[in-house]
Amino acid sequence: MASDNEHCGDRGRECTITVSNPVLRGMYPDPSWIWDATREEIVLVNSSFELVPGLPIHTTRDLVTWTHTANAVDEAMSHRLLIDGVEDSGGLYAPTIRRIGGRYVIVCTVARVNEVKALAAGCSQKDVDGCRAAQGNFVIEADELTGPWRGPYWVAGAEGIDPDIFEDGDGTVWWTQTRPALHPQWDGQTEIWTQPIAPGTWTLQDHKTVIWRGYGMDAVWAEGPHLYRVGDYLYLMTAEGGTSFEHSEMIMRTHAPRGFAAALAGFEKNLAAQDIWIEPARDGERSVVGHDNRLFEACKRNPILTHRHLGAGEPVQCVGHADLLLHPTVGWLLACLGIRETPGEEPGETFSYCGRETFVAPVVWQHNPVSWKLDGGEPNKRIDIVDPGWPVVAPGLGRLPEKLVVDVDEDGLPCAVRGVDSAGCDCAAGNNAACPAELIQLDDTRLVGVRGRDDYRFLRVDGQEYAAFTRPEYTMMMHQDSTHAVIVMAEAESGQLTAEITDRGDKRCIALGALGANEWFGLRLHGNRLEFLARQPAPDSIDEGTMPDIALIAHADVTYARIMADCDARFLSTEWAGGFVGCLIGVKRR
């Protein structure tokens, strides 16, 4: 995956490159990333739900070209993780990747597991029991990014989803995640808890401590927590509002120069000196979130990232579930998910087909402005030089940048990144710029399988305008979930083409007519319409010697295609189907 416009020419000289957001298109949600000093590049992992292989890992040196380097979960590990038994929009949720003890470590949750289905599919009782004891939470680790990955290590006693793993300066490793509040003050209230964990055995130590319950009144679904040390301060960043139109990102901090454990103990000691005790909701736990006393101080500018204030006409919605990264040459960056929406016919009606995608934005740290006293007088100009301040995402824009302008040095490394909107960019490429056609063979490493869709190999649909073709000896499917899909197949002898549409589990068939000589067939998402197409492959697009190995043409040119039929595509949207995933396009041999 590369930039829309490259202003570089050959490497070996400084240049500027413009990249459109999202940087990873198609269903690449819940990004987590690190700067990997050993590889001298960024490493990013995404959720994969029920896809196998899972937890795709991409790397980049310049934020421009992203390489699919590995999958942390292969077919064998997916079996141990009970993917065979997950329901729609279940599977691998919200990983966090970090380097701990010289190893790559990913923590994650497998969700919506049907134990009966998993056992029937041959998963072991040991893994079913381990998953249950850990509420689906696990650790995998590897010495090399490309594997082999070891695990899963089920984290017994973990509760909830969206785990974070954080190694503090004193060597203590903390497991942090979100769970429903036991006695919620409002519907959807969650709480963030943390606990030390022993690396190697990956067993929780000591006791759980609740550290956050949301930024304000009616703050729902505080989740996706990440801890960061910046100087003497420990920052907690969380998403709020759920992965929908109210999604947002909040940040809090506490002064912890001697470590997180010391900060927790010091907070409790200070309260005890005032004869104050914060009663935990669960026996054997602690809480540092009281009515009047909280360990973590919230940023007054929260949320630091959201699009919920931009209205239904904003083309990118639901932004959040972010992770911060400190790059050695460009400074701080943020990766998050967002959803590109296609407008519907009714006011405020939108539909998405690509799922949640990965966006990137630059970040600067700023202190609060110099404050004037209410009674006049000189402003307080003192700034604590050891105070990092607070992160500002995409400064000057107030939203995710449409494009990233990356200054690259003569070694091909980024030296500056700034975010711009289309009006501030001198290049013409946009979020829907045409992608060149790709010829896909069945051994392409980007292809994935979906449980219940035996023999199909899928690509992520990665454009709001998207077309793909296959040969008549293949069957094509556009998949949303098990109850929303379309299958197109050609009858072997007559070439008659039939489409089977599944909408909320109900099936109907459309007779499309016969293919012509040497024609391939395909599907095109075009706005909220789905077109059934036929065409002969362009002679200059396929080498005759490799044609028998080509299973799919993605991002296909439809200029000379004929439309055999079309239908409403909204049944394939996330909004119509429900759940968390985007569309896949796949084929299998007939």
UniProtKB/TrEMBL annotation:
- Single GO molecular-function term? hydrolase activity, hydrolyzing O-glycosyl compounds
Q: Say which domain of life the source belongs to.
A: Bacteria
Q: Which GO terms describe its biological process?
A: carbohydrate metabolic process
Would I find Hydrolase among this entry's keywords?
yes
Q: Give the record's keywords alphabetically.
A: Glycosidase, Hydrolase
Q: Read off the Pfam families from this record.
A: Glyco_hydro_43
Q: Which InterPro entries match?
A: Glyco_hydro_43, Glyco_hydro_beta-prop_sf, Glycosyl_Hydrlase_43
Q: Which Gene3D superfamilies match?
A: Glycosyl hydrolase domain, family 43 (2.115.10.20)
Q: Which family does it belong to?
A: Belongs to the glycosyl hydrolase 43 family.
Q: What is this protein called?
A: Alpha-L-arabinofuranosidase
